Amino acid sequence: MRTHRKANLLTPALLASLALASACQSNGSKNETTATGTAAADTTQSAPASAGDSTGKKFLSQPLVRDIYTADPSAHVFNGKIYIYPSHDIETGMPENDNGDHFAMRDYRILSMDSPEGKVTDHGVALDVKDVPWAKRQMWAPDAAFKNGTYYLYFPVKDKQDIFRIGVATSKSPTGPFKADPQPIAGSYSIDPAVFADTDGNAYMYFGGIWGGQLQRWRTAKYDSTVAPNQPANEVAIGPRFARMSKDMRKFDGPVQEVKILDENGKPLLAGDTKKRFFEGVWMHKYNGKYYLTYSTGDTHLLVYAVGDKPEGPFTYKGVLMNPVQGWTTHHSIIEFNGKWYIFYHDTQLSNKTWLRNVKVTELKRNADGTMETINP
Ligand code: FUB
Which residues are catalytic? Predict the structure, then answer.
């Protein structure tokens, strides 16, 4: 089940988090506010949920903001500043299930920081589901890009037929507000877009997620709602999708392809290899001329990575980037800032509820051979 893997503990901290959940519901204004949270090492904060370490365990980093719930952080450096495009988690009372109906988000709020250790600013609502003509529900993990003076927000949301599509919205400001195009990107489906701008000026979208992300229902060009979430273990695992972006960044320029992820012997990963195979939350970055495809393994709760020579792959599995966080989902992004590399991720430290998450950041370290150190969050 895409539900709690770890037991919920009813503690005073959890009660505090309920108060936070209630505050989060009313905190939808567009006013720019400065968050009370600070990055990584500061554990002395006094926000209502500061005792939110409901399991008593130590966390590597602290939540970046504490007055709203945020998840799926896609971070980018625009004009020397860090912008985070997260999901905005809310409490809606939807029951937990494998479709992820309990992730019932309705808008996006953008965060910014001058540095990974700096103060975090919450810029208010950047896009609301009610302002997307084709959308019905569940604004999941977004991403953003910048080109020729325009910022692009890419977002997965279910359409009126309850099928995930990927939309695009534009703004002249990295913090919005964003205006959505009247239709989703033609040919798009499933969830978790990640747009990667290569050094040669080409841009690509990676996307997809199985189970509640519906990717298994796209074996052909036609959506088939009858396909079961789990593939037979001996089948080649479903891969993330990849498409080149058009020059105007609003369309796919060419066909959507499936990305191949291979094991160390050059054989495609199998569906039964659940600690290595792709589930959701893909990200792409380039380091020393190599393409690093990082992603979540979903029901085994790992962030792992595979390396390739071209943006379209194939990619060869290399190892675990991050061990499981507290909470069912794990989702991340990677940026370089002032010569260091950082990973933005989330866990459920403030709420201990799978669907009420908080974003975090920590440094990502590499070995001389380009492999990445495993992070214990
Ligand atoms: O936030 C909803 C979904 O949970 C995302 O789209 C997935 O990547 C997972 O984090």
Answer: 72, 280
Q: Residue 13 is inside which H or E element, if any?
A: helix 12-26
pLDDT in tens, 76-135: 999 999 999 999 999 999 999 989 999 999 999 999 999 999 999 999 999 999 999 999
- In this prediction, residues 282-291 reach a mean pLDDT of 98
Report domain extents, the chain: 14-364
| Helix H or strand E encompassing 17 | helix 12-26
Candidate of 74, 192, 325 to mutate for ligand 1, largest count of ligand atoms within 8 Å of Cβ: 192
pLDDT digits (tens, 9 = 90+) for 347-367: 999 999 999 999 999 999 999
Buried b (16+ CB within 10 A) or exposed e, 56-87: eeebbbbbbbbbbbbbbbbbbeeeeebbbbbb
Q: Which of 325, 328, 329, 357 to mutate to test the pocket of ligand 1 (most atoms within 8 A of CB)?
A: 329
| Model pLDDT, residue 31 | 30
- Of the listed ranges 22-26, 200-204, 227-231, 296-300, the least confidently predicted one is 22-26
Distance 98 CA to ligand 1 centre (A): 12
* CATH code for the structural domain at 14-364: 2.115.10.20
Give the ligand 1 atom nearest the CA of 156.
6
pLDDT band at 56 (very low <50, low <70, confident <90, very high): low
Nearest CA to ligand 1 atom 4: 329
Atom of ligand 1 nearest to the CA of 281: 8
Q: What is the mean pLDDT of the chain?
A: 88
Asked if pLDDT for residue 16 goes beyond 70, the answer is no
Ligand 1 binding residues, C-beta < 6 A: 71-72, 87, 103, 140-141, 191-192, 209, 280-281, 329, 331
* φ/ψ bin of 346: left (φ > 0), alpha (ψ from -120 to 50), beta (otherwise): beta
DSSP β-bridge partners for residue 285? 292
Q: How far is the CA of 191 from the centre of ligand 1 (A)?
A: 8
